[in-house]
Amino acid sequence: MLSQCIESITSSYFGLAPGPFLALNVTLVFLSGAMILIAGIFASRILKSRHKKLADSLRFQYQKILNKIVVNEMYSEGRTADAAFEFYMGELRLYSGTSSLARQLLLSQILENKKNLTGNSATVLVKTYYALSLQNESCKKLKAFKWQEKALAIREFAEMNHAQSIPLIEHYLYSGKQNLREECLMALVRLEEKPLSFLDHYKGEISKWMRINIYRFLQNTDTRRLPVFSRYFNHSNLSVRLFCISMARRFKQSSSLPGLLDLIYSDNAQVVGLAVSALGDLDAYQYRHEIARLANHVWRFEKLSRKVVACLGKIGDPETDVGLVGKFLGHPCYPVRFEAVSALKKLGSHGEKYLHDFNLNSNQNIKPLLRHFSEPLLN
Amino acid sequence: MKILICDDDEALVSMVRFKLSRENLGEVVKAMDGREAKMLLRENDFDLIITDIHMPFHSGLEITTFIRQELGKDTPIIVLSAEGLEQTVLEAFEMGANDFITKPFSPAELAVRVRRILKK
Question: Residues with Cβ < 8 Å from A3, sequence gap 6 or more?
Fold first, then answer.
């Protein structure tokens, strides 16, 4: 029926056979499709470029006002300052209006400025964030579908010291996305009144990246605010245990020495190694006998042997422990032998004499080791 | 007085320019990358250069070497960097920098240092 109809139309109107007519139709459809696609691309480009222009112009305006706010730090007290601040807030409100996009741009511009600033200038930007209720924008972002947005929101809360958001942030502590978990953890470290109190119940992993970042943050924290890390030495989470041992070591918490001594009897080699290194760094001379006893049992474990020998080099008794450390010059692993040379050198004249005698008696087979040790570029 | 600030961070450049102009420390010219900085340095004489270390095309340390060795000028240089490692600071001073400021910093402190260097 349809074919008859087409046939009659084509033959009566165009004088064409149905085949070529169909081909013409298909071509026309494709052509118009392509035209619509090209128009769509153009429209999207125009929209994007307009959006970029608008964003650039808004950023420029915001920056002009933020400069005035930041540089106004000199008048941070008194009525004039308050009035000026209110005036600038009014200007920012005028530009940002109620548009979420404009407010997000303002928020990102504030963060962009704050990352370079310290002191009153940074404080006034935090004040701006709250004066304009930009925490609502961060909250919206936290509810977004994309994890990147959530991570950004968490960072904003942390930057702006928004402690009220801790319960919201804690929600993502065990997120499937590692980056989000890490951002969350860092935010908690920065926001909690007692840093690291979340560790009490923490079941996740503390990655190297997190350790470095937490350490960097804690370095700038008042040491009186730091937790006593030894309280986490028996934590059920191995990652927390290892992290806290290394923090006790870094922050030289001598109150954790008894706890560290207990850890050298742990059944986990990583824990033992870290505890031994910590005891060495904390100059725990009173425990040198325990470390010396441990040295008799670690021969089979390369890493542990290195750590025990290094520790003895720091806290060992030059007269009594030289022989014990010297035994490790015959260890099958080169790094252990190297560590033994280093430890003996640290043990002073007794150690030096031991090395000299050993070199003579062993037909100079530690000469390359000694050369390696005295070559700074190889160390 | 003519000051050149080289940094690829627009917000920072804008803020520093504003602060220094507000303190009447002179005309502030900006360069957003190492190449632009070199070009401006070849064509102009500046009384002070404030440069970041990490920039596109040429680093702040390269700019410092360029000023001292290629141009042979002793224009005061303040290096501004987020990288406050001892090694980096020493390297900057060895290459001829006059001062080093670690980011984040206080704009007021920067202004004081600039004023001191320009002896205003």
Answer: A18
Segment A192-196 shows an average pLDDT of 80
ipTM above 0.85, yes or no: yes
Q: Does A116 touch chain B (CB under 8 A)?
A: yes
Tokens for B80, please give them: 């501004």
Say which residue the tokens 């928020």 belong to.
A107
Closest to B12 (Cβ–Cβ): which among A68, A116, A122? A116
Q: How many residues does chain A have?
A: 379
| B3 touches B48 (CB < 8 A) | yes
Q: What are phi and psi of B53, to 5 degrees?
A: -85, -50
Contact B107 A118 (CB under 8 A): no
Q: What is the pLDDT of residue A110?
A: 93
Domains in chain B: ranges and CATH: 2-118 (3.40.50.2300)
Choose among A351, A349, A263, A350: nearest CA to A307. A263
- How far apart CA A271 and CA A304 sit, in angstroms, is 10
Rounded distance, CA A373 to CA A369, Å?
6
Angstrom distances, CA of residue A283 to CA of A63, A269, A278, B42: 52, 21, 9, 56
pLDDT digits (tens, 9 = 90+) for B60-93: 899 999 999 988 888 999 998 887 778 888 888 9
Q: What is the pTM of this model?
A: 0.70
Residues A296 and A124: their CA atoms lie apart, in Å, by 60
Cα B24 to Cα B111: distance, rounded to the nearest angstrom = 10
Query: Hey, what are A126's tokens?
Result: 């935090």
Of A91 and A16, the structure prediction assigns the larger pLDDT to A91
Q: Is the model's pLDDT at B112 over the cut of 60?
A: yes
**pLDDT score recorded for residue A288:** 86
Residue whose C-alpha is closest to residue B37's, from B65, B58, B9: B58
Other beta carbons less than 10 A from residue A50's beta carbon: 10
The answer to whether the Cβ–Cβ distance between A116 and B19 falls below 8 Å is no
Lowest average pLDDT, out of A58-62, A220-224, A332-336, goes to: A220-224
Residue A232 has pLDDT above 60, yes or no: yes
First to last CA, chain B: 10
For residue B5, is pLDDT > 90?
yes
**Shortest CA distance to A111 belongs to which of A170, A75, A157, A57?**
A157
How far apart CA A175 and CA A61 sit, in angstroms, is 38
Nearest CA in chain B to A66: B15
* Residues on chain B touching A216 (C-beta within 8 angstroms): none
User: From the centroid of its chain, how far is CA B98?
Assistant: 10
